[in-house]
Amino acid sequence: MQSVVGRTEFSTSLCNRSTSVISVYLPRPPDTLHPHRQHLCSCDRDLQPITTKLQRPQPKTHTTPPQCPMSVITVLPYRLQLITLPVSSLSCISHAVIKNLFFRGKDKFFSYTENSLEVSIIAEVETAANDFPDTGSPLAPNIIKTDDVFRALQVDADSEGDFLEESGKRITDISAPLAAAGISIFYLSTLQTDFVFVKERRLLQVISTLQKHNFEFNDLDSVHLNDAPISSAALAAEGVPLTDVTTTHQPHPVDTLKKNLLRTEPLRLIGLDWSTPSSWSLELLKIMFYPENPGKRRFFSYTATNEGISLIVEESVISQFDPNVVYQDQQSPVRLRCIQVDLTQLGLDRYGIVYSMSKRLVKIDVNLLYLSTYMTANVLISTLDLEKILKELEMRNTDDDPEDTPGPTLAAWAADVDPGLKVGVGKEGVPLTASDLEAS
Predict the structure, then answer these.
(1) Cα–Cα dist 223/79, whole Å
(2) Which residues contact 221 (CB under 8 A, 6 or more apart)?
(3) Is the dihedral of CA 271, 273, 278, 279 positive or negative?
(4) CB–CB of 348/255 below 8 Å?
(5) Is the dihedral of CA 131, 197, 151, 242 positive or negative?
(6) Residue 221 and residue 232 in contact, taking contact as beta carbons nearer than 8 Å
(7) What is the pTM of this model?
(8) Cβ pair 355, 2 in contact under 8 A
(9) Of 370, 78, 83, 356, nearest to 198 (Cα)?
């Protein structure tokens, strides 16, 4: 498959407004791209555009087809752990972070997100064990590693078109059946693709649940669990409810959890040319470890996989990079704001959060990106949609206030999506509702 897309439609905002045609240049070797990924970005590089037709797997014929093209899901081989620590302890792991920023193999997975509440990292099990201190270590005060191992599901569009333009719909579609099954997920939107993280011990149930909702899995025969291929019999067995579900476990009350509109400057989603790290490594180090305004509240996210490098950064930061190594939409850049909710009280068994937050916005025709961290949920929306969202959620746009703009409680948000919807936590996954949630 070729690595360059000649021309494509790129949305002028994250809310399905009119589009403009731009050229997209991706100067990357063809053998480094995932076979089912189309990069929708542009790079300021003097290259001649090459037009190629991307080959995508044909979906199976379903008796009852979905209302719109669903997504193709690939279960990645990575076995991952989540790590969290206070921002004040970042210097204690700087060596480990730098190692994984610049000296990791391109076939490795590493994600770093920083906000005012935490530094949240997703890394492979071996990386977590070899590079980062253990939970409770005095080498990094208040660091926590998950005991659970997670698996990553890569979510790609099953049709030609703008991958980012359908982001909100895709998040809602895939999170709905998993929420109904009481399955906890973490979601990560990037420039190149989306990722859903689930506990490894629930992988079979996740696959079975999504297959029943017409999601297509790519190359499932190659997926291994406990060092053995996944069998059809094992998936069929997952059609029966888990026998170890603790049905007496009640969802955690979420009435006190508030959403906040973070008071940061507008954010942007960009990519970096991973073939030339020498062109951006010093700038990235400065942004992460030596910011111009130390102590200033900020939002920063970096994800590197074999798909490429994706960043969400404050708009002013982009100028620090050489424009020749930055992938972005030059003609109509999408400026983002972040609505964040503190999920510290819910722990890692929370479920229904992603669905309840995305569905509410999709219902009012607002697109979004979503980033889960260990302690927070982060919904990124276009600044063009900001007033519409604040009005819908009865939030105030008070950017001049010293504190973040508060919004409705998480329970109130969820109830407005679906009167029967509950969000919370459940040991091993208590079903979210008695009836299935809609997936559209």
Answers:
(1) 12
(2) 229, 230
(3) negative
(4) no
(5) positive
(6) no
(7) 0.75
(8) no
(9) 78
The Cβ of residue 63 has, within 10 Å, a number of other Cβ atoms equal to: 5
Residue 59 sits at the vertex; the CA angle it makes with 364 and 152, to the nearest 5 degrees, is: 70
Tell which residue, 210, 205, 189, has the closest CA to residue 439.
210
Give the model confidence (pLDDT) of 84-133 as tens digits: 999 999 999 999 999 999 988 888 999 999 998 999 999 999 999 999 99
Structure-token pair, residue 73: 């899901």
Nearest to 427 by CA among 246, 253, 252: 246
Largest CA distance in the chain: 62
Cα–Cα distance for residue pair 355/359, rounded to 1 Å: 6
| CA distances from residue 70 to 57, 105, 277, 386 in whole angstroms, order as listed | 12, 32, 35, 28
Separation CA 440–CA 430 (nearest Å): 22
Q: HEC states along the chain?
A: CCCCCCEEEEECCCCCCCEEEEECCCCCCHHHCCCCCCCCCCECCCCCCCCCCCCCCCCCCCCCCCCCCCEEEEEEEEEEEEEEECHHHHHHHHHHHHHHHHCCCCCCCEEEEECCCCEEEEEEHHHHHHHCCCCCCCCCCCCEECCCCEEEEEEEECCCCCCHHHHHHHHHHHHHHHHHCCCCCEEEECCCCEEEEEEHHHHHHHHHHHHHCCCEECCHHHCEECCEECCHHHHHHCCCCCCCCCCCCCCCCCCCCEEEECCCCCEEEEEECCCCHHHCHHHHHHHHHCCCCCCCCCCEEEEEECCEEEEEEEHHHHHHCCHHHEECCCCCCCCEEEEEEECHHHHHHEECHHHHHHHHHHHCCCCCEEEECCCEEEEEEEHHHHHHHHHHCCCCCCCCCCCCEEEEEHHHHHHHHCCCCCCEECCCCCCCCCCCCCCC
Alpha-carbon span 29 to 284, nearest angstrom: 23
Q: What would the pLDDT profile of 300-324 be if each residue is shown by its tens digit?
A: 999 999 889 999 999 999 999 999 9
Indicate the angle between helix axes 410-417 and 353-363, nearest 10 degrees. Answer: 60
CB 144 within 8 A of CB 85: yes
Q: Are 238 and 203 in contact (CB under 8 A)?
A: no
